[in-house]
Here is the input.
Amino acid sequence: MLSFDVRSLESHAAHVEGQLAPDDSVWENGDVRPAGPVRVEGRLSAAGSSRFYFNGRFHGETGMPCRRCLTDVTVQVAEDAHFIFSSVGEDSADDPDVYPFDPHAHLLDIRPAVREVWLLAVPGFVQCREDCRGLCATCGIDLNYETCDCAPVGGANEWDALRAIRDQLP
Here is the structure.
């Protein structure tokens, strides 16, 4: 469970132990979704009038293609998380580290904050292994498992045209 009764939070902290499913409605199109549930653990407590503080950790995994050979790679994602929730209309609502919530709501939903931290924690790219040789630029064969007879791509590169222009300048 990742929603909490605001009235009970004002009197005592809550132990957070829940999961955010990969098919949860909080995920948006284009998000790097987890392969399974994201496990969230921590503590949610009052931090002043209409403010709450979450201190905890989340972990899960996702699948991404290797940046060189496009093989699917399972990536473990784990991160410490610290959120501040403040009622809408507070001065700190413009702070990107503060998540606003409706002051008239009875439940505080931490799923949007978990989603945002998940998206920031997922790496932009991965490699299947350190020495990945990638795909042949000509025939597309996976050079980690096979060799090809294609001529090596070399000699000319994208900078040669600029070098030629530079050499023509006085």
